[in-house]
Prior knowledge:
Number of strands: 8
Helix content: 10-25%
Order of helices and strands: EHEEEEEEEHH
Oligomer: single chain
Largest sheet: 5 strands, mixed
Amino acid sequence: MRFIVITGGAQDADALTAEYASARAFGTTRVGARHLFFCKGLRVCAAAYAGLARCYRRVMLVPARLCCGRGDLELECLVLENDQGELAQIQLPGRKAAVAALEEIRKHAPSLETRCPDKARKEVRA
């Protein structure tokens, strides 16, 4: 299997394949011991925890027209950031999967920041 490594530089393909096979799956996202794997189109991307600065949940409200009227659907995403900015926004199947995936990432990478940055507060104070 071919992987597109977005953080952490070049990696051994056999080691990535073995880690991908043993990783815990949350929809199309897999959480491994040293990498987070996710699908982007027809490709599988690998992000090393060492190359990430922050990983957090983002809940997007999508307006929808339902049989009983209008409402908002909650779309759960996992956001990956490095020092330069946002690398990827990965859609997850639901709230339970998002919380479980973030807990699994915390277990494998305890030094990785898993809270959303509070940019709005910083702008108000300035």
